[in-house]
Amino acid sequence: MKHLYTWTAILLVTATSVIGDILIARAMKQVGDFHQLWRHEGVWIIVARVLSNRNFFLGVGAMTLAFFSLLFALSWGDVSLVAPAASSLTFIGTAFAAKIFLHEKVDGRRWIAALLVAAGVALLAG
Amino acid sequence: MTFRKYLVLAGVTVFAAAGDSMLSYGMRQTGNISLDHLGSLVAAVLNPWIAGGIVLLLAFFASYMNALSWADLTYVLPATSLGYVLLALIARLALHEHVSPLRWLGIALISGGVTFVAGGPALTSHKPAGGTSDPFLAKAARSGAPTSEKVPAVTESTER
To answer: Do A98 and B44 lie within an 8 Å CB cutoff?
Structure first.
C-alpha cells in the first residue's frame, strides 16, 4: 500500500511539473524576449505582459500543485526514491511534451542530453 | 548567447540548488506532513529554512522565466540539473564529505548532458510561412518585439 502511495505521488509530481513547465515556457514565448523588451520598452511592459498571460497563471497553478505534492510525497515516502525518481522522470517527460506541445526541435543531441541528465539526476538526487 | 544570458542560466542553477537544499534541510526539522493535519503545513512554511528556501525558489523562478523567454524549454531544463553537480562539488570541496563513485558518475552524466545541449542552438525558430503559424509570435512581431522569426532563410534553429 505504501508503494502504491509513493508511486502515485511520484507520478503526480512528475505530471504536474511537466504541465507547469510547458505552460510557463509557452507563456514566456508569448511575452517575448525579456532582454529585448527591457531594453526597448522598460521593465514594466514585461510585468504587465506576464500578469496578463493566462498560461502563466495556469503554469504557476500546476507548479504549486507539483510543489505541494512533492512536500507530501517526501514526508510519506522514501526520500531516496521520491526525489530522484520524480526529477529524473520530469526531464524525460518534458522532452516529450516540449516536442509535442511546444514544437521544439528535440534533435538527437537533446534526446541524449535528456537521457544523460535523467540518469545523472537519478544517481545524484538520492 | 550573450554574457548576460549565461548569467541568467547561472542564476537558474544556483538559486535552484540553494533553494532546494534549504527546503530539504527545513523539511528534516519539521518532519511529517499528513493530510489529516493541514496545520502542520502552515507550521512547515513558517520554518525559517523553508521560508528562506521558498524565497530562493522565487528567485530561481524569475531567472527561469527570463531564460524561457529567449530559449527552448529543452535547452533551459538541463541547466537546472547542474545544481545537483554544484551541491555534490560543494559537499566534496567545502564540507570534505565523501562522494561515492556512483555520485561521481552522476556528475559526469549530467555534465555530459548539459554540454551536449549547450553545444547546440538555444532556440528553435519557427518558420514564418506567410504570417507565422504561432499566433503569439505574430502578436509579438506586431507589437514591435523582435523575435527569432526575423532570422532569414534558415528555418531551423539558428541562435547560438
So the answer is: no
Q: Give the contacts of B160 (CB within 8 A, at least 6 positions apart).
A: B1, B121, B122
* Residue spans per domain, chain A: 2-124
Cβ <8 Å between B145 and A40: yes
| Chain A interface, best mutation among B69, B84, B126, B136, by max A CB count within 10 A | B69
Instruction: Calculate the alpha carbon distances from A110 to A92, B10, B58 in Å.
Output: 10, 20, 27
Ranges of each domain in chain B: 3-121, 123-160
- As a whole number of angstroms, the distance between CA B30 and CA B41 comes to 9
**Using CB atoms, which residue from B33, B66, B117 is nearest to A113?**
B117
Task: Report the candidate in A88, A46, A93, A107 with the shortest Cα–Cα distance to residue B143.
Answer: A46
Render each residue's pLDDT in chain A as its tens digit; 126 residues: 677 888 888 899 999 999 999 999 999 999 999 988 988 888 899 999 999 999 999 999 999 999 888 878 877 777 778 888 888 899 999 999 999 999 999 888 899 999 999 999 888 876
Q: Show which of residues 32-91 on chain B sit within 8 Å of chain A, judged by CB atoms.
A: 32-35, 41, 44, 64-66, 68-70, 72-78, 81, 84-85, 87-88
C-alpha span between B126 and B157 (Å, rounded): 8
B136 close to A29: Cβ distance less than 8 angstroms? yes
Cβ of B103 under 8 Å from any chain A Cβ?
yes
Q: Model ipTM? A: 0.87
Would you call B3 helix, strand, or coil by DSSP?
helix
